[in-house]
Fold this protein.
Amino acid sequence: DIQMSQSPSSLFATVGDRGTITCRASQSIGRYLNWYQHKPGKAPKLLIYAASNLQSGVPSRFSGSGSGTDFTLTISSLQSEDFATYYCQQSYSTPYTFGQGTKVEIE
Amino acid sequence: QLQVQESGPGLVKSSETLSLTCTVSGDSFTSDSYWWGWIRQPPGRGLEWIGNVYYSGNTDYTPSLRSRVTISVDTSKTQFSLKLRSVTATDTAVYYCARGSYGYSYGYFDHWGQGALVTVSA
């Protein structure tokens, strides 16, 4: 199985801050990397697919980069609605695997 | 607008079978552009992929659950289902169904249900 690890586990920030989350795969996965936002009691929401492609309807303050084993999700200016948990997921091969999550919290 | 919604018992006894159904509405269910998946989240933990069912009827399961899980599809009802046999307390989780799709040949889950909490009791 491909292991996915995210850092940090928690990110404390204020509105307007730039937020950066990294995701590392245990082997090269090309650009088969997706990012999701998850709020308690809600359906997870796709933000970025194929490492850097913004899903339709997602604000442009979200961006993704990387390939191979190292990936980054950046939120250019955190808004109040962005405080949530973020997961990366590889779709290079099954079993699909997720990172352990990064909780973005208000400082 | 596509909607996916999980349904099923919220409480299952240990050693019995967990059964959930995902109802899909608002978009083509039988297109070969999509597949359908189940993902779960145990309390306080992250997301775990369970398996997929494809347009062809083929399935793919995570190895740790393969001996106990079946995912099937009923196109006439635009539903797909999850059965997990011989459950234990470690199967307690919120279970999500989701649609898989492709963009530039890369796969992702683009529509998720709200989730269904299933608790396994002794």
Q: What stands out?
A: The longest strand of chain B covers residues 93-103.
